[in-house]
Amino acid sequence: MVPLSWYMALSIIVFSIGVFGFLSRRNIILMFMSIELMLNAVNINLIAMSHYLQDMRGQILAFFVIAVAAAEAAIGLAIVIALFRNKATAHVDDMKEMQG
Amino acid sequence: MIQQAFFGYFAFAITVLSLLVITRKNPIHSVAWMLLLFFHIASLYLFLNAEFLAAVQVIVYAGAILVLFLFAVLLVNIREEMKIGRFIGAGATGFAFAAALLVVVLMSIRSFVAAPPGIYTVDLIKQETHTVVLGKILYTEFLYPFEVASLILLVAIIGAIVLAKRRLKG
């Protein structure tokens, strides 16, 4: 039997890789992919907990996370396309119109 | 023993694949590695007796979201992408932050205290089948959040069309 803490460790490792990618990649599409990575890490944790604590609510939550991830990807990529039409770049450090 | 070996393989593969996803220079390679990553995560769900979620993972993530990413990647000028550096100037700060998060949460896992187990034992789920159990909870206890999720998807459809459509002249 695999202990629950192994799954939690795997989850936080994938989550940290997602955080690293989000904070340091230059391409905005790769930043979105890092967000998907983080959401998947959370899903691994939720489903592992659901199995080990014998409660189905974790899987319901994972279900909603997948639905929200689909919506987020659609909206985010629409924003990328709108941005690309105005600036013709996908690099976050080229976007400083708002003095960020 | 064989379970640990299986988990070890999947954990190793998932870690390596997620590192590959965020470090490739060519975004199309990232998408391809991410496809493999999603299949590995779906297998891990099967390992956890969540076969419906495994199917949803393959259909929604690998089937829908990754195709969307592929469409967006094709907009980027890949030739220019290959020349420019892949990380921003402050990339080292991002790495330090992520490493600190990893260490802190890994240390805090040891103090995790599990709640008392619920009623959905493996035998009950095996008897009623997984999808039936999931559907019964989703349409009774979680009916209101389920409706809200459908509203979120509707907003996403409208928002994506409004944001991405070409502005009409005049």
Helices and strands in order, then pairings?
The complex is a heterodimer of chains A (100) and B (170).
Chain A: H1 4-24, H2 28-52, H3 57-87
Helix pairs in contact in A: 1-2, 2-3
Chain B: H1 2-23, H2 27-47, H3 51-73, H4 78-83, H5 91-108, H6 122-128, H7 130-140, H8 143-164
Outline:
Chain A is mainly alpha-helical. Chain A is 77% helix and 0% strand.
What does it look like?
The complex is a heterodimer of chains A (100) and B (170). Helices cover 77% and strands 0% of the residues of chain A. Chain A has three helices and no strands. The radius of gyration of chain A is 17 Å and the shape is elongated. By secondary structure, chain B is mainly alpha-helical. Chain B folds into two domains: 1-79, NADH-ubiquinone/plastoquinone oxidoreductase chain 6, subunit NuoJ (Four Helix Bundle (Hemerythrin (Met), subunit A)); 117-170. Chain B is globular. At the A-B interface, α1, α2 and α3 of A face α1, α2, α3, α5 and α7 of B.
H/I helix tally of chain A: 3
Structural class of chain A: mainly alpha
Task: Flag low-confidence runs of chain A.
Answer: none
Tell me the major beta sheet of chain A: none
Question: Span from first to last CA of chain A?
Answer: 50 Å
Mean pLDDT of chain A: 88
How helix-rich are the residues of chain B, as a percent range? over 70%
Oligomeric state of the chains in view: heterodimer
The assigned CATH architecture of the domain at 27-94 in chain A is Orthogonal Bundle
The percent range for helix content of chain A is over 70%
Number of separate helices of chain B:
8
Question: What would CATH call the architecture of the largest domain in chain B?
Answer: Up-down Bundle
